[in-house]
Each structure stands twice: as C-alpha cells, then as structure tokens.
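In pairs, describe these two lines:
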Amino acid sequence: MGLFDWFNSTKRPEAGVAPASAANVRQTLLGLNRETAPWQIRDGAEEGVDLIAEWKIVDARWYELFAKASLTEVFQIHLKFDEAAREVRALDKRYSVSWRAGLPHLEFSASTFRGQTKSFSWGTAYAFKEDGQFGEVYNYRFATGEIKKPIQEAVTVAGWTYKGVSFGKL
C-alpha cells in the first residue's frame, strides 16, 4: 500500500484471491448490517449509486444518543461497483444536522464535502439517574473507521479493491 492509497482510503485484496461477482459483493456488504451497530448500509439507487453506508441518524434506537452527542454532521459513504476493474469506488460525504425537540432535522448546507475523510468524536456523561443512583448516563464513540473498516475488509476478502475517490468519477 502506497502513501496515496493511505490518504484516499484505498485497500487492495491479498494476492491470489479470486474475485467474487458484483452481486456477491453487494450481498456481503448488505450482510454487514446489524441492529446493534450505529450505522447501516442501504440501497443507493435513488442517489445514483449502488449502496450508501451511513450513521443511523433517524433510527429511533440511535437518534437520542446522536442528539446527546451533539452530532452536527451526518457521514455517508457512497459506493459504486466497477465490475470491469473489480473495484468498489467510495466517496465520503458529510451533511449538516440540527436537533429540534430531540429529533434530527437534516439540513443540507451550502458548503459540501467530497472526498475522503477520517474523523473521531467521543463523550461520556455522569449524572443522577431516575433510580437516584449517580452513574454513567451515556458513553459514545463515533469514528468514520467504524463504518469504513468492515466495508473495506468485506470488499478485499471478496477479491475486490476498495478505492477511495476524492477527485474524478465515482
């Protein structure tokens, strides 16, 4: 892996790994979804891509934690399959989010981000709980790597390259 690959989040498969079909790669990626994860992978046809990986910002199980964390951006990875090159091309996007009455309200800002990003945020709060005991109320950690790493591993195990795109065609 070269320095440019590191900067643009490109991951290549091990030598000699037979590439799977695009349909199998898609199913493998969708199979990464689980209820306990704060992110999901969904169909991206409406947005003109194959799949989108994103924080579960509007999921009832997660939005309260995102609100407490004062999350101000929604992170997404737009994924597009290039079957001829055996690549999953990935473009990171961020959108602004504000919170109203504890519910998320997406706001698409005039400034946009397109490319590859790495970010990390965390927080813990202690207070008196409903039972009167003092203790941890919440503890969170959000890192773009939490979404990227399992996707990159699934893609490379399938014999494909995960190619981070900053400039050029997705």
